[in-house]
Amino acid sequence: MTTISRRDWLLTDRPASRRQARLGQIYRTWLTFRGNWLAMVGLAIVLALIIVALFANVIAPYDPVIGGDLRTARFLPPLTGNHLMGTDDLARDIFSRIVHGSRLTLMVVVLVAVIATPIGLLVGTSAGYFGGWTDTILMRITDIFLAFPRLILALAFVAALGPGIENAIIAIAITSWPPYARLARAETLTIRDSDYINAARLQGASSARILWYHVTPLCLSSVIIRVTLDMAGIILTAAGLGFLGLGAQPPQPEWGAMIASGRRFLIDQWWVATMPGIAIFVVSLGFNLLGDGLRDVLDPKARK
Amino acid sequence: MTADGGRESALLRFLWKTAKLIATVALTFLGLLVVTFLIGRVVPVDPVLAVIGDRASQSVYDRVYVELGLDRPLYEQFWMYLQKVFTGDFGESFLTKRAIADDIARVFPATLELATIAIVIGTALGIPMGVWAAVRQGRLADQVVRVFGLIGYSAPIFWLGLLGLLVFYARLQWVAGPGRIDIAYEYAITPATGLLLLDSAMQGQWDAFRNIFSHIILPASLLGYFSMAYISRMTRSFMLNELAQEYITTARVKGVPEWRIIWVHALRNAAVPLVTVVALSYASLLEGSVLTETVFAWPGLGQYLTNSLQNADMNAVLGGTLVIGAIFVGLNLLSDLLYSLLDPRVRRQA
User: Fold this and answer.
1) Residues 9-38 of B with CB under 8 A from A
2) Model pTM?
3) Do B144 and B62 share a structural domain?
4) Chain A with chain B: Cβ pairs closer than 8 A
5) What is the pLDDT of residues A251-270, one digit of tens each?
6) Is residue B1 one of the residues assigned to a domain?
7) Alpha-carbon distance B272 to nearest alpha carbon in chain A (angstroms)
8) Which letter, b or e, does each residue of B314-343 get, where b requires 16 or more Cβ atoms within 10 Å of its Cβ?
9) Which domains does chain A have, with CATH numbers?
10) Are residues B118 and B264 in the same domain?
């Protein structure tokens, strides 16, 4: 099959099978997405982050934690020898630390998404589906969590749980789910009384089954867009916690903590604090661009 | 129904809606208290040891344990906590050995001053940029504003702060460094409002005023940039909404000059939801201030909170969190009220 005919097969007006129609739909979405070059840049950055995190061992030329010779290799400026981004106060290669730090960043983002999305979906769909008191109570709780600025609440939780990257992840997850719950509730309200839900109910399906198999899948796409848009915020919050010394602990190569330790040498060795910041900036810009693009493509309401 | 009766019942409905809003806010505030109380209970720090130190005898320990009410059931402890908070008693800071309410009152003006200047900068730049982007939708100007905003959404504020210090303070020496004021001027001003710019201006201390301004301008511009990113994006979308309305076409047909259509007809209608946006970003400046104040050694609420956190001073952390939460809720309420006051459609629906 040549490329042209495969394209025709995907874009046909009369799909022969359900699979062809679905693949065609995905392909059309992809074509719209591809037309948005900013979104493509975002996608490239996010893919690069994943690849760098997976192959950190191969990409990083030096060890991220153990430094070189403290007498000769401290504070080497960028582009000296093999040190693309220079070395820090403990003679560690900054580039290698940033490469390894991408694993921590990716871990934070993935774990927060994995913890917060199901909580938000569960709370939101239950509130929307059951209505009445369940709705009132669940949404009141959601509002209380929304009433705190996110970073402040995460700070208070980390203070209670103790510093460390695991606790930072838990704290960020606890503060991230409320918007997802709101969104899932709104989506659930629009489909709660539709015919196919009633049909499922008449067939004797349990509430749990209806929620899980019939309601949740329909809320998923809008929640996923929202999670993607939030990922930049999650990265920035995690970096902020790290910067304040409440997230990842030294010698872990977390980007926010690296900025904090480079801060002391800011005036004379500017690169120690600057380089990790560039990494945070590029990655969260990538997630923002990707999220924006996804919203334009997948959310019919945002389409102009 | 007479016109008067209609207006009266509209007023009643407005009052009813306000009452309902206040009830919701009260409930939310109670929730805030529950959350801070529960966080305070799960802390691994023993509150008794924090008060008496670890060398006191067992009998002292037991006495303080009872004094703090730790032997009572949880709901009684919560009731005690409520009573204390409502009398303005957040406990004593282990760090400064002062009442936390006093500490917060002392540091709050610094944050207020910073956030106010930041929101002025953010609004003054954000609204024109949003309008400009909407008018030139899809063109170069629109893209520039969008990318400028995206940078604001993506850059860590503490990192930009450090870069700002490096470039504008250390290298170019355009602004003063960390802190609110140079030591030389510190005692020249008698504290009145705690807002140093205001104090120094009222006392005619113009040298001190210049010094304070040179300290505040960098952190305030930085925070202002972040609220500008949000305000310009929202302005753009509100303006696009308005510019697509029919009254704009009518105005054009009538021959109203284009600048008047944009800046008077459309912007006036877009201003109603914008009030909410500005109020919300004013609230979120409190959040941004935690990191910014740490970078700029700004002696405000954010730095107080961070200092307490790093020293496991739990009373101070929870007190600060509660105050910020309360301000957040208050500003949300204010923006809701303003919205229903300014928008006749919302007023009528109420």
Assistant:
1) 24, 27-28, 31-32, 34-36
2) 0.85
3) no
4) 144
5) 888 999 899 888 888 888 88
6) no
7) 21
8) bbbbbbbbbbbbbbbbebbbebbbebbeeb
9) 35-61+94-189+219-302 (1.10.3720.10)
10) yes
